[in-house]
Amino acid sequence: MSKVVVIGGGASGLVAAIEASNQHEVILLEKNDKCGKKILLTGNGKCNYWNHDMNISNYNTDNIEALNSIISKNNQKEVLTFLEKIGIYPKIKNNYYYPYSNQATSVRTLLLNEIERKNIKVIYNFEVERIIKNSTGFIVKSDCEEIACDKVILAAGSKACPKTGSDGSGYDLALSLGHTLNLVTPSLTPLKGEETYFKEWSGVRCDSKLTLFIDNEKVSEEIGEIQLTDYGISGICTFNISGLATKGLEQKKRVTVHIQFLPFLTTSFYDWFTRRDEEIPNHTIEELLESLLPYKLMFVLLKKANVNREDEWKLLPESKMRSLASMVEAFELEITGYLSFDKAQVATGGISLSEINPNTMESLVIPNLYLVGELLDVDGKCGGFNLAFAFISGYLAGRGI
Ligand SMILES: Cc1cc2nc3c(=O)[nH]c(=O)nc-3n(C[C@H](O)[C@H](O)[C@H](O)COP(=O)(O)OP(=O)(O)OC[C@H]3O[C@@H](n4cnc5c(N)ncnc54)[C@H](O)[C@@H]3O)c2cc1C
């Protein structure tokens, strides 16, 4: 039996501690006066903790092979069984898993109950400032206390949503032990631009297809709801492309988004609208667009295309027809910024996954050190992928130790 210290009482650390306690003495150190603060905020308070389709394409990472092995079908099965065995009964909606109660607090409570049941010692208000490796193991230090142990699981999270405790100190601890930190930027966050028309479209929610271009190269595409705001764009679709966008901006690249406001179209807007105009004759352009676009958005698009809403489509000069078509199907938005870590749900980038043994989450740099959760260079789209990775990686470390 070894003495194991787990640093961080979030989703990954709680699971790691529970699993490691099957064979070892475990001490969990949490800088807050409570564990799992972030869990309570997830899924708008409902905790979307898993996804039925855990395909690798839902993640960003620096090592796809290692991630594939971590989230293997077998590991998924084991961790889902683990979650059910501690008492989480799932409700599955469009592939998204929630606790049946629809309460994030249920997930935190059940994890904490298990911590208590396993007699795991939790020390609150213990902010780890240093980890020292010595010949027998590790010394884990706060500003006034220190604990000697054989093995350490570092589960201190990223720097997204720092009010929950994850302020990036985990990166410093891993760096001090010789690990590599890949560029960290916010993800699952709104994107900003500098256009004057933002005030006019603010408040609109609509279905669309977003295509992200970095230095004019297409890198990602998402279909779903977006929100048009007074600073730019938000909503799940925006969140899912935001990690690549924030990275591009930090690397001083040109970041643009093309918005197709009628994503159901299978032909060009020009052809489709011309047919629509023939099928519904004697209608103004506004009448033809009436049931397709919210007014605020329609008026911005017409203004930018320099088209009068009372005009008739067939009487427009070709150039204006083409201009309106491009506004509707490939509206170009220059992205110049993003809402920062305070508003972001996760961080993209982190400690390189290439420095981790994917079977056990043990460091390939320092033996007996394990790294798990969002601290690592793994982040997922909206839909439960991030908590699922936190749970699986925590479980593998606890089991592997
Ligand atoms: C608003 C919001 C909504 C989200 N919704 C979802 C969702 O619906 N589905 C989903 O899958 N994901 C969601 N996420 C992301 C998900 O919550 C995280 O990816 C996941 O919780 C990460 O778990 P973790 O254990 O790696 O880190 P964290 O949960 O951040 O835990 C890290 C813990 O370590 C502690 N700590 C940090 N540094 C130290 C230190 N030096 N010493 C001691 N303790 C320390 C922190 O206080 C914290 O308790 C959401 C995130 C946010 C912010």
What does this structure look like?
This protein is α+β, with helices and mostly antiparallel strands. It has two domains: 239 residues, FAD/NAD(P)-binding domain; 150 residues, no CATH class. Strands 18-17-14-15-16-13-19 form a seven-stranded antiparallel β-sheet. A five-stranded parallel β-sheet has the order 7-2-1-11-21, with helices on one face. The protein is elongated. The protein binds flavin-adenine dinucleotide. Flavin-adenine dinucleotide binds next to helix 1, helix 2, helix 6 and helix 13.
Topology at a glance:
Blueprint: E1 3-7, H1 11-20, E2 25-29, H2 37-41, E3 50-51, E4 59-61, H3 64-70, H4 73-85, E5 90-93, E6 96-99, H5 104-117, E7 121-123, E8 130-133, E9 138-141, E10 146-149, E11 151-154, H6 169-176, E12 181-187, E13 191-192, H7 198-201, E14 205-214, E15 217-228, E16 232-234, H8 236-250, E17 255-260, H9 269-279, H10 285-289, H11 295-305, H12 318-329, E18 331-335, E19 337-338, E20 346-351, E21 369-371, E22 378-380, H13 385-400
Parallel strand pairs: 1-2, 1-11, 2-7, 11-21
Antiparallel strand pairs: 3-6, 4-22, 5-6, 8-9, 9-10, 12-20, 13-16, 13-19, 14-15, 14-17, 15-16, 17-18
Helix pairs in contact: 1-5, 1-13, 11-12
CATH architecture of the largest domain: 3-Layer(bba) Sandwich
How many separate domains?
A: 2
* Quaternary structure type: single chain
Q: Write down how many β-strands occur, each being a DSSP E stretch of 2 or more residues.
A: 22
Strand order of the largest sheet: 18-17-14-15-16-13-19
The percent range for helix content is 25-40%
